[in-house]
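Sharing a chain and its predicted structure for anyone who wants a worked example. Both blocks are below, sequence first, tokens second.
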Amino acid sequence: MKLQFIDTHAHLFGSDYPQDLDAVLNRAKEAGLQFIIVPGTNQKTSEEALLLSEMYDFIFACVGIHPHEALNTKDEDLDQIEKLSRHPKVVAIGEIGLDYYYDFTPKEKQKMTFKAQLEIAARRKLPVVVHSRESMEDTFSIIRNLIDSQNNFKNKDLYQNRGVFHCFPGTQQEASIANELGFFVSFPGIVTFKKSQSLDVIKHIGLQNILLETDSPYMSPVPVRGKRNEPANIVFIAKKIASALNVSENEVAAITSKNAISLFNLPQE
């Protein structure tokens, strides 16, 4: 029986796969990809993600404004994100969050845009896909404040899973905090890098708290590091995690896929 994976974060936009998207998706299916989730980073790419989800039944979309794109974000842009979120194949608001590593957008503007989109997610009863780089303390603080103020986020019976920290950059302790707040953490090809601490984080929190992603076209895993990434490479990520945890690749695939289906309310075959 072929293993079935879910790539929970792949930027399959035309600018990154201008000539060969069909071939990329065929390789993904051959590798056992059951579903692929394509997050938006601004209004344009959110619309592109939706278009892909309409073209391919195994692709689902997220809509959102990335912190790098927050500088010129206006109220009407946020209104459009909320409008797009009503599409039946939108499974989350994202990719949203805070990034203090790059100085593309002032911190206060990032925070305002992040808060506004968390509120959209709460109104729409959708999970969120969070980008947090060198900003974990503020990210946690904003999410805690939302949980305290929004019934949809506060009530875990109503809102079983609040979201995922994608390409998780944090420590074991921070991963535990994310889990306690109702969030999964996900890992791309960084788990195959020699100096990465990601495997220690995964060992600490367990498979029941993680998702798999490729972050295509970025973060290519060993042994294809340096090349454009694609969803089929998720098999290398799963294999590395299985080896580190001394479990089967089937167990990694089964548990992480179950997590993704639960979080994003994906079809169950």
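Comments welcome. The two ends are 15 Å apart (CA to CA).
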